């Protein structure tokens, strides 16, 4: 099993560009979520999903979109990148509410110039 | 608003010693989950221990144990017989009834040889 796979690991964007951070898990987990981690801060929840077709906003959702068309994939979209979105992004998944979040991806380091 | 506070930004202890990391949180809910996560220099997030608020018994995982004081809204992590591999950032986290997780800002722990 690969666990939670995030791609890419690093990305540099210019202000105004769009991109999608990919997240895939092969554990048949219902719960998936996206976090950002900034220096001196803990992780902050961006969006999460309790199952295919269901998404909800977390603590800092502005500037990000998500969709969950399959159980396996949970992409995060930046429609118009801003320097404030420079961060390390983590995707996580878990089997159930009780066990969440248990599995994290290795993170994507995103820089917006 | 629900908050998680880790009052110790950084700590250092000698190898084999016992160390306690503090965490307090604020919520009006009665049923919730608490977590401790470890983030080593590799940046990967690793779940260390989980506590369910309705359980009075403190959770333990090998050398890791918690002191959960629900009335005081305190959730400290004790690491016994500390090892060099325990060097990492440690994050306390709270999950509310809406499945949203809030992280503290972390404690950087150094285990000295």
List the helices and strands and how they pair.
The complex is a heterodimer of chains A (113) and B (113).
Chain A: E1 4-7, E2 10-13, E3 19-25, E4 31-37, E5 43-51, E6 54-57, E7 64-66, E8 76-78, E9 87-94, E10 103-104, E11 108-112
Chain B: E1 3-5, E2 10-14, E3 19-21, E4 24-26, E5 33-39, E6 46-52, E7 60-61, E8 64-69, E9 74-79, E10 88-95, E11 101-103, E12 107-112
Oligomer description? heterodimer
- Tell the overall outline of chain B: globular
CA(first)-CA(last) distance of chain B: 41 Å
What integer is the average pLDDT of chain A? 91
Please report the distance between the alpha carbons of the first and last residues of chain A.
Answer: 36 Å
Overall radius of gyration of chain A: 13 Å
Fraction of helical residues of chain A: under 10%
Number of E strands of chain B: 12
Structural class based on helices, strands and sheet pairing of chain B: mainly beta
Secondary-structure element pattern of chain A, one letter each: EEEEEEEEEEE
Radius of gyration of chain B: 14 Å
- How many helices of chain B? 0
- The general outline of chain A is globular
Secondary structure tally, helices of chain A: 0
Mean pLDDT of chain B comes to 93
The H/E string of chain B reads: EEEEEEEEEEEE
Low-confidence stretches of chain B: none
Strand content of chain B: over 45%
Binned strand content of chain A: over 45%
Largest interface, with counts of residues having CB < 8 Å to the other chain, equals: A-B, 26 and 21 residues
Helical amount among residues of chain B, as a percent range?
under 10%
